[in-house]
DNA sequence: GAAAAACTGTCGGCCAGCCGACGGACCTCG
DNA sequence: CGAGGTCCGTCGGCTGGCCGACAGTTTTTC
């Protein structure tokens, strides 16, 4: 087995991974559309994304629910009953969980990293449960947009936020547990109301972040 | 600080906890109804239940969603945004997560235990997400009952299953993300149809486990 | 043992939003 | 640059189930 090395031009988020953490991992290139994991898989693996994007999702009969999009620097473990698909060509570093358990035993510095990874996955899962159980789709969408604005957005003059978001309407609907018709309808209504504006599929301008916050927090 | 010891008559599931795992934990007795944790809590703790029962739940405006009922032997960590309430008088063993992190660093044998705990919580959370997103209440209830029958039930003669279940209708509804009216209506319909029978609030007799399995798996 | 509290069963109005369908717009590929 | 593929916008029928209300039953407390 040939041991690959991270390329020097790797994504900064991936380069922040402590080098010793990658010891024992093996690089794999996944073509776009590749279904990397399914719920019935018996092999559990730990994976770290170097480049590209993976979508983790659950499948219903007529639609899918995306739990997350994994990006460079993200760590994930596939023991949950989910599908994992490469949205674009993606390079990941993999280790079977059995081998990873040995790594944990021999290198205690890895433990806090993994506890944080699992903890974050758990918090995200609980937040999604809360959304699905208690919030209607408009509130979910508003919360999603305000959360992304706070994480990825850039404030411009006059209280306007620029939000680069490489997600289509169907992607957003999938993350919220809704349908593209419902999300499309809401986005267009909010555009007509002057709350936001869509520019192509990659950029939102948010004119009324406060209004979105209010929409995300029903009284 | 007085160090308590587990009583000799403790629940077998609790007594299966490795003794060294309890090192550093402190016993607390929580009265019935005690709200032990809320989403805003800044203190994150690891807890192990010796006796009693805790309910972990999310709160909406008009109802609650119970994520789980914790019982003797269960380990939980409160860093997710949930409420934790003592359903009956409950004795738990507690440690702050900061101290627990030091324990993990100094005693690597604890790591696999905690990885399994977090992993199980994650799998349960993902299963609930799948239910909420894709399954209607009858399917959720059927899956709940068949799952509990397989875990806690006892087969009797003639294909009948005895399922001791110390949960009221409202408890079951809360676990499924539904309302007591909906669950009550379904249980009574299934009783009229001869699929099951409720005996008091603590015991189900399941006459048609196959039918329940089918109801839990929509085509 | 009675009163109070808690839980359950039932009913029906109401509505959020899913989903199939269709046409248009945009993007990709050859 | 055109064809094909993919995505988006809109529409409206339909339905699952929430929830307020009320009465009855069971359990708990004193």
From TrEMBL, chains A, B:
Domain of life: Bacteria
InterPro entries attached to this UniProt entry: cNMP-bd_dom, cNMP-bd_dom_sf, HTH_CRP, RmlC-like_jellyroll, WH-like_DNA-bd_sf, WH_DNA-bd_sf
Source organism of the structure: Azonexus hydrophilus
Boundaries of every Cyclic nucleotide-binding domain copy: 21-76
Leader sequence segment: none
A Pfam family recorded for this sequence: HTH_Crp_2
UniProt keywords, alphabetically: DNA-binding, Transcription, Transcription regulation
Transmembrane segments: none
Database matches in SMART domains: HTH_CRP
Keyword match Metal-binding: no
UniProt-recorded name of the protein: Crp/Fnr family transcriptional regulator
Domain HTH crp-type positions: 135-210
Organismal lineage: Bacteria, Pseudomonadati, Pseudomonadota, Betaproteobacteria, Rhodocyclales
């Amino acid at each position: 087995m040939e041991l690959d090395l991270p390329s020097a031009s790797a994504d900064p988020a991936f380069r922040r991974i402590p080098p010793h953490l990658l010891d024992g991992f093996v690089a794999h290139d996944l073509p776009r559309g590749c279904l990397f994991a399914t719920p019935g898989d018996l092999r559990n693996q730990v994976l770290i994304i170097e480049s590209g994007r993976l979508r983790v999702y659950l499948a219903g009969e007529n639609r899918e629910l995306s739990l997350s999009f994994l990006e460079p620097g993200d760590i994930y473990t596939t023991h949950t009953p989910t599908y994992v698909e490469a949205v674009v060509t993606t390079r990941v570093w993999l280790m079977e969980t059995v081998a990873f358990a040995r790594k944990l035993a021999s290198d205690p510095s890895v433990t806090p990293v993994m506890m944080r990874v699992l903890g974050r996955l758990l918090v995200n899962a609980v937040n999604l449960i809360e959304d699905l159980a208690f919030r209607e789709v408009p509130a979910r969408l508003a919360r999603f947009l305000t959360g992304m604005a706070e994480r990825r957005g850039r404030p411009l003059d006059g209280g306007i936020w620029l939000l680069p978001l490489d997600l289509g309407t169907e992607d957003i609907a999938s993350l919220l547990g809704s349908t593209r018709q419902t999300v499309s309808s809401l986005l267009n209504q909010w555009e007509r109301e002057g709350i936001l504006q869509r520019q192509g599929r990659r950029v939102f301008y948010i004119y009324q972040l406060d209004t979105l916050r209010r929409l995300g927090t029903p009284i």
